[in-house]
Design a protein that fits this description.
Blueprint: H1 2-36, H2 39-64, H3 80-106, H4 115-137, H5 142-170, H6 176-203, H7 210-221, E1 226-236, E2 242-250, H8 256-270, E3 277-284
Parallel strand pairs: 2-3
Antiparallel strand pairs: 1-2
């Protein structure tokens, strides 16, 4: 138990480091984007703002997840991550639309950004995001691995800004700046749109995977003693931890020992799916379903 708590504390500390680095640098980015007159830097600032929100909610989740379920939050606090994803997506969509409204008109008569300032910001961006990614790379949790990929995307984005800044210092092609910002923004919108729809589906308690639901149903139907099933509901707390409830109609179970054997078979069959919570109701063949 001590080792688990220590590991959880390390996770929170690493995510906290990444959060404060990203928030501080995002503020610098917005200021730098204005000073250098670069929409590419502004687009990356919006991207980093989204990552800061993601990291912030992940940090909060890392702290909340250790709390026990309460009378109000009977499943615990894992579902807060969905709320964080929803807010994050809305902020990124609004920010991306704003960047596009700034960048697209510049295609007709693009102003020359301060290439030297862009270069300095790009180097700083690679260093800050690279250091944050390095801090999270030491973590082993899924939370940290996903955030680390976000930060590596940021590093690659700043490498692109660095390349464009170097080109602009050599040749007079100011259109590269709005083109890069539009490319960044469309990439953000594509990923955010996909994640936003998945988040909305999970909020509405849609099945996290039709294939998973079908597989669970087939597994339960194949068990000896199970004649039929209904009211199979599969939904997700946060996209990773799933919840199952189902009614199983059984044949005659002549003793308590028969019931125990069937329950053990059900538990063993469902173990491969690593479900967070399961509720299975057994109904005898002569018993009406009380939920009909």
């Amino acid at each position: 138990m001590h080792d688990h708590g220590h590991s959880h504390g390390d996770e929170g500390a690493r995510i906290g480091w990444a959060f404060f680095l990203n928030v501080g640098f995002t503020i610098i980015e917005f200021i730098g984007g204005v000073l250098t007159n670069s929409t590419a830097i502004m687009a990356d600032a919006v991207h980093d703002l989204g990552d800061s929100l993601s990291i912030g909610f992940a940090w909060l989740l890392a702290r909340l997840s250790s709390k026990q379920a309460t009378a109000s939050f009977t499943y615990g606090y894992r579902r807060f991550s969905l709320l964080g994803s929803f807010i994050n997506a809305l902020v990124l969509i609004v920010g991306s639309v704003w960047v596009l409204s700034e960048a697209i008109p510049r295609l007709n008569d693009p102003p020359m950004p301060m290439a030297g300032g862009m270069l300095g910001m790009a180097v700083f961006g690679v260093l800050v995001n690279g250091f944050a990614a390095y801090k999270l790379s030491k973590g082993k949790t899924l939370n940290e691995r996903v955030l680390n990929w976000h930060l590596m995307e940021d590093v690659l984005g700043w490498v692109a800004v660095l390349v464009v800044a170097i080109i602009l210092m050599v040749v007079d092609w100011p259109i590269l700046d709005p083109l890069l910002s539009i490319g960044f923004t469309l990439f953000i919108l594509f990923n955010v749109g996909r994640n936003f729809w998945q988040t909305v589906r999970l909020f509405l308690q849609a099945s996290p995977s039709p294939e998973l639901k079908q597989s669970v149903e087939q597994t339960l139907r194949s068990l000896p003693g199970v004649e039929d099933l209904h009211h199979l509901h599969l939904w997700s707390l946060d996209g990773e931890r799933h919840v199952l409830s189902v009614h199983l109609r059984t044949g005659a179970l002549n003793s308590v020992e028969d019931q125990k054997q069937l329950k053990h078979a059900i538990s063993h069959a469902l173990s491969e799916y690593e479900l967070a919570h399961t509720t299975v109701e057994l109904e005898f063949d002569t018993e009406p379903c009380r939920d009909r």
